[in-house]
Amino acid sequence: MSAARDRLDAAGCLPVAEVWVEEGEACDLQFGRDLAAARAALEGQGAWDVVVQPAEHRRKKLIVADMDSTMITVECIDELADYAGIKAEVAAVTEAAMRGEMDFGEALDARVALLKGMDEAVIGRCLSERVKIMPGASALIRTMHGWGATAILVSGGFTRFAEPVAREIGFTRAIANVLEVVDGKLTGTVAKPIVDSATKLATLSEAMLTLGIAREETLAVGDGANDLAMITQAGLGVAYHAKPVVAEAAGAQIDHGDLTALLFAQGVARKDWAVA
């Protein structure tokens, strides 16, 4: 913390106080001005995460979150493909899409087409065997829910995963793509229109309007290129263990901690976290 104060001082940010949110684990370093200069001075200086933000509206009233590799530890479509023996092929397309190197809709259609003919029962098997909740996800969402925040899971993945994941973690609702099934077999298609980057941004905007809250009172978190629009428009947009294109554009990066870092970022000590 002493080194961080020195960096802020050298950047002309006028550090004034430090207050521990969680002793030895998370600390607020308050300063006088210039958020951009403070972020430049502090990020990437060690194995810790830095969130630079205004003190006002720190505790958010809305969180919109991605699912795959954000609220859960895997990419569901890649895991489904593994049951068909084509994980490497599908995962390569997923990675390109998440890095922003392919159109998300085209990438989704191409990957789902490869699953044509798969038995519908494999979805349930994949859910139970492969899908694991990201550390800190339940504490984050349930704690925010406890002070009245709305939590929306918006995924470019599939309802068959997103809906049970949302229930387990504690989200208010879930939005995702619908895998089409005929006679117990995947058709290799998804229902249109798809849930994509525009859907995620629209969900954030519509929720703000419906709830009557300001942009500064919102948080968005994700890891891939299709999360960029909502991340850049939220009051606090967070790149969570994200692809470079997302990390560069986000207001904050979480590269070391788990999702409870977003509780620390909102000034919430461990004793005040909700227990699932």
* Rg measurement, Å: 20 Å
Strand arrangement, largest sheet? 5-4-3-8-9-10
User: What is the mean pLDDT?
Assistant: 95
Give the low-confidence spans: none
Level of helix content? 25-40%
Largest sheet geometry? 6 strands, parallel
The helix/strand series, from N terminus to C terminus, equals: HEEHEHHHHHEHEEEHEHEHEH
| Structural class determined from secondary elements | alpha/beta
The rounded distance between the terminal residues' Cα atoms is 32 Å
| Number of DSSP strand runs | 10
Strand content: 15-25%
Number of helices: 12
Shape: elongated
Structural features, described:
This protein has a six-stranded parallel β-sheet, sandwiched between helices. By secondary structure, it is α/β, with parallel strands linked by helices. The model has no long low-confidence stretch (mean pLDDT 95). The protein is 39% helix and 20% strand. The longest helix has 15 residues, at 197-211. It is elongated and about 65 Å long. It has twelve helices and ten strands. Helix 3 runs antiparallel to helix 4, helix 3 crosses helix 6 and helix 4 runs antiparallel to helix 5 (104-113). It has helices at residues 2-10, 35-42, 76-83, 87-98, 104-113, 121-130, 137-146, 159-169, 197-211, 228-233, 244-249, 261-264; strands at 15-22, 26-31, 62-65, 150-158, 173-177, 179-182, 185-190, 218-222, 236-240, 252-254. Strand 6 (179-182) and strand 7 form a beta hairpin.
